[in-house]
Design a protein that fits this description.
By secondary structure, this protein is mostly helical. The protein has one domain. The protein has 2 helices and no strands. The longest helix has 90 residues. The radius of gyration is 46 Å and the shape is elongated.
Length: 146
């Protein structure tokens, strides 16, 4: 429900802005037609402003090109060696993990499986003794119902 008043305000503001812009353009056009000397001065001022603006844009463009050149150099000289070093470290870690897996973990798993098999065989051949039940004390006997 709150969207409708906002839309109405937006539409009224847009129409008012458009009307105001047309009034300013019409008034400015009338003044430029009726006062040619003022028009020539304003034209000269706008030409000077546009020339200064183009100088500023050119300077900023030169600075931008210089910064892009510095960024490119940074990527080539500093970040690429870091990435190469990181790749070398990753391959070393991968090799170490493979070595540990093949030479430590696999033999330990194999040994553990042999020990587990031996324990099962012993458990089948030599049965465990069950502990004898102990006599219950009177405090452990459940109360008689009834």
């Amino acid at each position: 429900m709150e969207e409708r008043p906002n839309k109405a305000i937006m539409i009224v503001g847009t129409v008012a802005g458009a009307v105001l812009g047309l009034v300013i353009l019409g008034g400015g056009g009338y003044l430029l037609i009726t006062h040619p000397e003022t028009t020539a001065v304003l034209r000269d001022v706008f030409i000077i402003v546009l020339a200064l603006e183009s100088l500023v844009v050119g300077a900023l463009l030169s600075i931008l090109i210089f910064q892009i050149q510095n960024l490119t150099r940074l990527l080539q000289e500093e970040i690429k060696p870091i990435l190469d070093s990181t790749n070398e470290t990753v391959s070393t870690v991968r090799g170490t993990a493979t070595f540990v897996s093949e030479n430590v973990v696999s033999p330990m798993i194999e040994a553990a499986s042999y020990v587990s098999a031996a324990r099962k065989v012993l458990a089948l051949l030599v049965p465990r003794r069950r502990p004898r039940p102990t006599a219950q004390t009177p405090s452990q006997n459940p109360p008689a119902e009834g």
